[in-house]
Design goal:
InterPro entries: Xdiol_dOase_suB
Structural class: alpha/beta
Shape: globular
Order of helices and strands: HHHHHHEHHEEEEHEHEHEHHHEEH
CATH superfamily of the largest domain: LigB-like
EC number: 1.13.11.16
CATH architecture of the largest domain: 3-Layer(aba) Sandwich
Number of helices: 15
Distance between the termini: 20 Å
Helix content: 40-55%
Number of strands: 10
CATH topology of the largest domain: Protocatechuate 4,5-dioxygenase, Chain B
Organism: Streptomyces smaragdinus
Protein name: 2,3-dihydroxyphenylpropionate/2, 3-dihydroxicinnamic acid 1,2-dioxygenase
CATH class of the largest domain: Alpha Beta
Radius of gyration: 22 Å
GO molecular function: 3-carboxyethylcatechol 2,3-dioxygenase activity; ferrous iron binding
């Protein structure tokens, strides 16, 4: 069910107490003229905030159905659980024609800097996912690769997202006692500047940066996945400590669609980060398997874009402060595209739930 339809129905009921009373007596019949099917009418009548929140409604709207519609003053039936909608039809995918690859993976430094700290079998399963993804990226044969990561050791002038506009970048993992794990890549200034200009034209914040050192956010996944050393790469850096907005991350990716479509280039997009991952004192080493599973099931169901409708706390509370990196990629891909999970491993020593997911683009495999 479309979140806007649900929201408008709830607001209509809230404004008309007679209509609300009739709705509570017969949700399906009264809900139909409001655009509700019987299932979602029952969800609203039952005060099920958890289902509504998972459908993308804000907490200020959903609390109406429990505290006001159902007279549950303490909101006692809400648990904060998340549900994956598998009944509503998916929109037809509308992927940019020249987007030839899209995926997400973790950028955990320990996987290449000191893999021995985690269970050997788990490391092997995770690495097999990267190997599959590298083969997919090589087969796509892109002209340029966009990669998202979050700010770790770089310094920028603003708190906005940053796009690398330089001719090339270099860096190493010296912060993790591995200066030998270095990387030098080519940039694509022309396309990067076009992306910057398009973002600004939409009134969104972005900082262009011709120089910044690569860190593990780019080095780790690119050392494992880059199909050839001369492939131009454009880094996109989020700054979650300063500007955390799931909705804004998706909007950022949506703006890039027009830029990509206007170029005669085969484009690949790689998102990096978590899933669940805390750096907070006292929380490092935890993985939220339940919420990670929800995210992965949403991707598999073709509803990854809907994750951006969650209020920021829902992600931050579960350690998903790096997931906006993925939402930029999902905004570029568009709704209705299913993800295939190649691997997922919660690893205590390296500090999170690590995943590798390939987005099954219709142009690549014929899926609709």
């Amino acid at each position: 069910m479309d979140s806007k339809t649900l929201e408008q129905a709830i607001l209509a009921l809230a404004k008309d107490q007679d209509l609300l009373a009739s709705f509570r007596a017969d949700p399906a019949t009264v809900g139909a003229p409001l655009g509700l099917d019987a299932e979602w009418a029952g969800v609203i009548a039952g005060g099920d905030r958890d289902r509504l929140r998972s459908a993308g409604l804000g907490d200020a709207i959903t609390i109406l159905v429990s505290r006001w519609f159902a007279d549950d003053l303490g909101d006692s039936t809400s648990k904060g659980a998340f549900h994956v909608d598998t009944t509503s039809p998916l929109p037809d995918p509308d992927v940019p024609a020249n987007l030839v690859f899209a995926a997400g993976c973790s950028h955990v430094p320990d996987l290449i800097a000191r893999p021995e700290i985690d269970p050997e079998d788990a490391v092997a399963r995770l690495m097999s996912g990267y190997e599959r993804l590298k083969a997919d990226l090589a087969a796509a044969d892109p002209d340029v690769l966009l990669i998202t990561a979050d700010c770790h050791f770089q310094n920028f002038r603003t708190g906005a997202y940053a796009i690398g506009t330089g001719p090339g970048y270099t860096g190493s993992m010296e912060f993790f006692k591995r200066p030998d794990l270095e990387l030098t890549i080519k940039g694509h200034p022309e396309l990067a500047l076009a992306m910057v200009n398009a973002i600004r034209a939409e009134g969104l914040e972005v900082e262009e940066s011709s120089e910044f050192p690569l860190d593990h956010g780019e080095i780790m996944p690119l050392r494992l996945l880059l199909p050839r050393p001369d492939l131009p790469v454009i880094p996109i850096i989020t700054q979650p400590a300063r500007s955390f907005s799931p909705f804004g991350a998706r909007a950022f990716g949506e703006v890039l669609r027009g830029v990509i479509e206007s170029r005669d280039l085969k484009v690949a997009m790689l998102a990096t980060g978590g899933l669940s991952h805390w750096l907070d004192p006292g929380k490092f080493g935890k993985a939220d398997v339940e919420f990670d599973t929800y995210l992965l099931e949403m991707l598999q169901a073709g509803r990854g874009n809907d994750i951006a409708n969650l209020e920021p706390y829902a992600l931050l509370d579960h350690g998903q402060y790096e997931f906006p990196n993925w939402l930029i990629m999902l905004g570029l891909v568009g709704p209705g595209v299913r993800g295939e999970v190649y691997s997922y491993e919660p690893m205590e020593a390296s500090g999170g739930g690590w995943a590798v997911v390939n987005m099954r683009l219709p142009e690549r495999d014929g899926n609709e």
